[in-house]
């Protein structure tokens, strides 16, 4: 039943593996695979964990993968879900499933090899991912405005977690708090919990639905914007598995990527601590106030109310896909004072040619120039600080990239308006 091929590899193979990977890591990962196979995981697609230059640790296969192949099928019993963590949850204070999983990681990690999950815990990276909200308050204070805006939620979520974790598991574990919170943030998968459990107690202990889980081995897949995957719980012979199907093909030994979602680079950086140059979903975002100021729009109450009432002030961005739906509407509100026309155009997405050819082109050029200047200022502010933390250095790298991206968009938008 068990697949033990990986522990009886020959001497040459062993030597090769060692030279590519620190021995201790190799042993940890072998133990993880052994533990999973004892829990009925069959590595049918012959996956192996490897170090890659571009991404760090990730997954490849010893055989080629064709589109629609099942990459991995992890038995639900090996997942860390609400069912596992609820036993150790005190009923005094309700927590989110994110907080519950993070506290579980901390408590189990402190048990060391005595933990039933020690193989999984040892496979987790020791370093905390470079999430921008983990920088120092002084660095965060010097972040660009869109960062500060995007950082608000993770910062307040973490502050909430900190308070509850100190109260429920004790502040002696505090050094592990950022690590555990970030592990869940960057590695948890979504599950339809109702499918595997009929537990109705979750609402007594949890604030939200128990729809997050940690999935050993599967959480070693890195993200790529071109990867297409389907994931979810499936039932085979009355047992549940978390299954991942790749819609792309991969050659033997090539890194296999999955998709964490069609995220732009700011979202990837905020949620996972990395960004990918050339990401086709990347965007340059704007706030309504920036647009009104930079384009000298003085909207009357009617137009301003129209934008706010219909939530057109969200998702204002430029990217490889062009001008976002809402940004076009906001720009059109600067083009016309006629409310009837604004209403009609906004909901039909069909704009006058003069607006598209002349006005829109002029506005996007101004906005991109403004963004370029802001990036330069933002870089200056951050790099003027002494001794940046790794998280803030990562933000600096991203702003440097954003500058290049803005330049690239300027060329693309310029070319598009000429053609
Ligand atoms: C689910 S884990 C993936 C496995 C992880 N590389 C590991 O060694 O455990 C998600 C984390 O992997 C890293 N990651 C994922 N995709 C990446 C990519 N395309 N480039 C760089 N880092 C990536 C980020 O640190 C992210 O927070």
TrEMBL record:
Pfam hit, one: SET
Transmembrane portions of the chain: none
An MF annotation (GO) of this entry: protein-lysine N-methyltransferase activity
InterPro entries: SET_dom, SET_dom_sf, SETD3_SETD6_MTase, SETD4_SET
Sequence ranges assigned to domain SET in this UniProt record: 45-261
Gene3D superfamilies registered for this protein in UniProt: set domain protein methyltransferase, domain 1 (3.90.1410.10)
Protein's recorded name: SET domain-containing protein
